[in-house]
């Protein structure tokens, strides 16, 4: 398992695009970020107190977190005059509550948001009973990039494997390097896990048992093969001794 900081993704992909022969230790595609343990070197770093450089794996059942653009309804069982519909999270992460004002909610789960709203209204209501219903939120998605038919952002509906995601995104191109497809998966806010998967080998053997299911927010990147990096036209003088010019 390779664990890298988010800001190094662009650098890593640039290296993959320029290098003619990538030599990286193969990672088992069957491993799951939610069940993996950090390498020993990371554990030793944690013991030394350098917590900022150590990726901590997320728990398996992650709750959705509110983000700008999300909208929800607020219902008061005993004080319906405070009910609000389609409360939208502003770009700065705040919402405006009737009778209370602006409250910061960006990054909170639904239970946390409910408690935040309840605490805000306790200033003017006694023990308010509140229920929240999300109406508009970011749908699960995956991103496909690199040498692929239609790079872009796609909805993740149900269980989708890596090879199925590649097909959804238009499939491989003639420049694709099938043997080193990269799958990036977020470990936490600062770290990503990078897996290298040999899709060519899986498809050739007809064994897709190690074809991983995508998680919401995953990004797959298909690098170019060696041959696609060769210029289509080169000066004939460079090959004069092999192909004599008439």
What would your notes on this structure say?
With 246 residues, this protein is α+β, with helices and mostly antiparallel strands. The chain folds into two domains: 132 residues, Outer membrane lipoprotein wza domain like (Outer membrane lipoprotein wza fold like, Roll), CATH 3.10.560.10; 66 residues, wza like domain (wza like fold), CATH 3.30.1950. Helix content is 18%, strand content 23%. It has a six-stranded mixed sheet, with helices on one face.
Question: What's the number of structural domains?
Answer: 2
Strand runs, count: 11
Q: If helices are DSSP runs of H or I spanning 4 or more residues, what is the number of helices?
A: 5
Content of β-strand: 15-25%
Percentage of residues assigned to helices: 10-25%
CATH topology of the largest domain: Outer membrane lipoprotein wza fold like
Annotated CATH architecture of the largest domain: Roll
* General form: elongated
Going by CATH, the homologous superfamily of the largest domain would be Outer membrane lipoprotein wza domain like
**Biggest sheet: strand arrangement:** 1-10-9-11-7-8
* Major sheet details: 6 strands, mixed
């Amino acid at each position: 398992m390779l664990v890298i900081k988010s800001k190094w993704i662009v650098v890593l992909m640039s290296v993959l695009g320029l290098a003619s022969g990538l030599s990286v230790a193969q990672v088992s595609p069957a491993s799951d970020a939610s069940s993996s343990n950090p390498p020993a070197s990371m554990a030793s770093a944690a013991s030394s107190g350098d917590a900022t450089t150590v990726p901590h794996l997320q728990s398996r059942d992650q709750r959705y977190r509110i983000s700008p653009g999300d909208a929800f309804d607020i219902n008061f069982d005993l004080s319906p005059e405070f009910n609000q519909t389609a409360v939208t999270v502003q770009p700065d992460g705040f919402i405006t509550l009737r009778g209370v004002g602006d409250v910061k909610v960006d990054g909170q789960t639904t239970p946390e948001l409910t408690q935040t709203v309840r605490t805000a209204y306790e200033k003017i209501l006694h023990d308010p009973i509140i229920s929240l219903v999300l109406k508009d939120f970011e749908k699960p998605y995956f991103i496909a990039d690199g040498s692929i038919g239609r790079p872009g952002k796609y909805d993740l509906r149900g269980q989708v494997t890596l090879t199925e995601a590649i097909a959804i995104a238009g499939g491989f191109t003639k420049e694709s390097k099938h043997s080193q497809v990269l799958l990036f998966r977020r470990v936490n806010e600062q770290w990503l896990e990078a897996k290298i998967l040999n899709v060519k080998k899986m498809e050739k053997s007809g064994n897709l048992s190690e074809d991983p299911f995508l998680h919401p927010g995953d990004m797959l990147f298909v690098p170019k093969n060696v041959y696609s990096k060769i210029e289509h036209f080169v000066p004939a003088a460079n090959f004069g001794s092999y192909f004599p010019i008439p």
